[in-house]
Amino acid sequence: MTAVMRAMAVATGPKVLRIALVQQKRVIEERIIKARTTVTVGQSEKSIFVIPAPGLPAQFKLFELIGSDYYLNFLDGMKGRIALPTGFTDLADLRGSARKVGGAYQVKLTDETRGKVEIGETTFLFQFVAPPPVQPRPQLPLAVKGGLANQIDWSLTIIAAFSFLTHFGLVGALYSDWMDPVINDDVEVGALVDLMKNIPAPPEPPQPATTATAVATAAATSAPIKNTPTAQTGPQGPKGAVSENKAAALVQQAEQMQMAMLREFRLKAMPEPHDVADALAIALCHYYASSNSQVGGTSVGVRLSALDPDTTS
After folding, report:
1. Is the pTM for the entire model greater than 0.85?
2. What does the pLDDT average to over 254-264?
3. Of 163, 182, 219, 252, which is the most exposed, with the fewest CB atoms less than 10 Å away?
4. Helix 212-222, helix 244-264: angle, nearest 10
5. Which residue has the higher pLDDT, 61 or 146?
């Protein structure tokens, strides 16, 4: 026995038959009867060993299991030799001591018995051996048996999926509005309308103090221009023939008047044409002259005449 055979686990229990079928000095078939059962031979397809034997019954019980013991059955035309506890004995010599059952001779076998039985041109070699170990059921490799689903570690996959759903569920809950209170649009709109109704009116801006520039400009516009003949007064304001120097002075005064009225009345655009600025200056001058005839201890007329272009020039 090799080391591998000795290392193999030895099966326990009663021994089983090992039978070899020999024809023309060649082993045709060899079997180990793993399940202790009766072994039949003959021409019937139901026999365990099918052999050409014309004088043999279709199913002859060559090795018959009675209880827990095996018995060898043989006929008159059979030859062979078996090893019994008493030694090697031919089948012809066992006919006298064997029990005859239904035309066949029957000899009890033990677990140590071995031998051969010749039936015509077929020879059966037999012996009792330990039952072979149970072979594991063959399985295909994972690469052949299964696809991608069988290669996935489902435990790790389930844990990862649960963790993914938990974390992203919490983040989604933080950024979602399902926890916010329900807002009644009608109530909110009504409160907004009431708030707009209760807004107090803005206070009136204080009247700006009259600056010296505005008063002087108004006085210069309203005062008569010396050495300038008066032609006529129309809807556009006072008009007349002037010299080039006077015309340039008048243009400059008109521009100053526009800037002053833009600042005093806080207009968004320059008052156009010049006559509009003149009219605003005249009105402003009359307003301050009627409301307060003294500004800082100086009469309005004196301050206006001081800014007369003829006087200043």
Report:
1. no
2. 81
3. 182
4. 140
5. 61
Peptide bond into 273 cis (omega under 30): yes
Contacts 24+ apart (CB under 8 A), 100-105: 101/73, 103/75, 104/73, 104/74, 104/75, 105/73, 105/74, 105/75
Using CA atoms, how far apart are residues 105 and 72, in angstroms rounded to an integer? 8
3-state secondary structure of 222: helix
Give the number of residues written for the chain: 313
Q: How far is CA 272 from CA 40, 119, 248, 258, 266, in A?
A: 136, 145, 18, 8, 15
- Region 161-183: mean pLDDT is 80
| In the block, residue with structure tokens 């099966």 | 11
Distance CA 196, CA 190 (A): 10
Question: Domain 3-129 class?
Answer: mainly beta
For the segment 178-218, what is each residue's pLDDT rounded down to a tens digit? 666 666 666 667 777 777 677 777 777 776 554 545 555 55
Per DSSP, the three-state class of 184 is coil
- Judge whether 273 and 279 are in contact, CB under 8 Å: no
155-158 long-range contacts, CB within 8 A, separation 24+? none
The structure tokens 């020039």 sit at: 313
Q: Are 63 and 126 in contact (CB under 8 A)?
A: yes
- Name the band, by pLDDT with cuts 50, 70 and 90, for residue 29: very high
